[in-house]
Amino acid sequence: MNKRILVSLIAIPLLGTTRQAEAATPQDRPNIILFLVDDMGWQDTSLPFWKEKTHYNEVYETPNMERLAHQGMMFTQAYASSISSPSRCSLYTGMNAGRHRVTNWTYPKNASTDRKSDVLELPDWNVNGICEVPGIEHTYQVTSMAQILKDNGYHTIHCGKAHWGALDTPGENPYHFGFEVNIAGHAGGGLASYLGEANFGNRTDGKPSPWFAVPGLDEYWGKDIFITEALTQKAMKALDKAQQYDQPFFLYMSHYAIHVPIDKDMRFYQKYIDKGLGEKEAAYAALIEGMDKSLGDIMDYLEKNNLADNTIILFMSDNGGLAAEPEWRDGVPHTQNSPLNSGKGSAYEGGVREPMIVSWPGKVQPQTKTDKYLIIEDFFPTILEMAGIKKYKTIQPVDGVSFMPLLTNTGDPSRGRSLYWNFPNLWGNTGPGIGATCTIRQGDWKLIYYYETGKKELFNIPDDIGEKNDLSATHPKLVKKLSKDLGKQLRKMEAQRPSFKATGKPCPWPDEI
């Protein structure tokens, strides 16, 4: 094992959040549904998260997102990491990705998924993800949010994509994170097929199935059913069982949609062809509407079973919409999240800004909206607070800040707070803002630093949501201030950085250049 990682593992218990578990009584605790969409961009909805409707808001149809927003609060500046695994690990640990060091997507054990570089030597990051078991190489040992909920009386259900740990490590399996039910979750970060007719990618001829073949849905093999529908049916069956228990439930509804491949959901596909969209765009729009139907079906289930008044629904995406592969979408690459710049894998807003809604009957004022920013690790302390778990113990330190004051209109946790990203890696694609970067958002300002070149970009996000006007040359003092804050925080978290192959020396921190 890498010595640096070993030292970090030994030190983690000393750094952790130490609290004695204390929870509200069962009748006081709400049910909680965390509805996470894969690769959903900020504009992949008919619900506008900007000051005006855009072309995409007019094309796509997501009536149930609109319905959820009608009964809850929209967050117009909700952020995640630009890649799946870092976001999901932060979500369930409350840690910033710079700290847990799962900074790119995971799957093969002990193997990096980074794109090769002639210039940079990329860091020895935690390629095996997170897990609750000590001593596993290239992992960060954690106490997961699901484990804390389970230990405090919640019935915990996982449905869909997991993607916390590499294949053949403890972190590949949701059972190892405190989930009592696991439906179709494994190490894979995508899916081989959405189609039941194709067995969701599973082979039946004795040959090995592809990496992303979805497990655990055998009863749907060979049938005319889309995986989004199959997962929804399985989730509702799990909720039927949960109602037999005298305890609140936590459902992590983690869809594989709307990740590639862009298979055609024929329930909705023809509608978008009739609207004049090309085949790929129509298929993509159908994926979105199928995901939205799942949300509506679950909301209908809650109402039918008299659960709606005591159930919180949180809606979120794990990273920005994919925009770097021109062959799978009609139009110009990197524009599919417009007015945001770029998409998945990018430090620009298109890669990290997500659609987010929270509904909590009796607690959150319906038809409300906030432009205060937050980041995905904030879900950890917030959900535990929602569950009435006031004191708990974690192995890891928690970076997230509860956004409960925003929900209850009692405060602004974003005031005076900076958000941080560290991606010392190279994703598989290229494009605007895609590279080895670190970033800070402080108030209206956002600074991006590129490890390879030392370049810095400064944007005023409210004034320039598309990040077209780099103001670094005209605001040198602000660049220096933000660089200092960012560099200090990265060192505090023991974040990683690349090195130059030519010299073997590490790339400078942003405040060293």
UniProtKB/TrEMBL annotation:
<feature type="signal peptide">
    <location>
        <begin position="1"/>
        <end position="23"/>
    </location>
</feature>
<keyword id="KW-0378">Hydrolase</keyword>
<keyword id="KW-0732">Signal</keyword>
<feature type="domain" description="Sulfatase N-terminal">
    <location>
        <begin position="30"/>
        <end position="389"/>
    </location>
</feature>
<keyword id="KW-0479">Metal-binding</keyword>
<dbReference type="Pfam" id="PF00884">
    <property type="entry name" value="Sulfatase"/>
</dbReference>
<keyword id="KW-0106">Calcium</keyword>
<comment type="similarity">
    <text>Belongs to the sulfatase family.</text>
</comment>
<dbReference type="InterPro" id="IPR050738">
    <property type="entry name" value="Sulfatase"/>
</dbReference>
<dbReference type="InterPro" id="IPR017850">
    <property type="entry name" value="Alkaline_phosphatase_core_sf"/>
</dbReference>
<protein>
    <submittedName>
        <fullName>Arylsulfatase A-like enzyme</fullName>
    </submittedName>
</protein>
<feature type="region of interest" description="Disordered">
    <location>
        <begin position="493"/>
        <end position="513"/>
    </location>
</feature>
<dbReference type="InterPro" id="IPR000917">
    <property type="entry name" value="Sulfatase_N"/>
</dbReference>
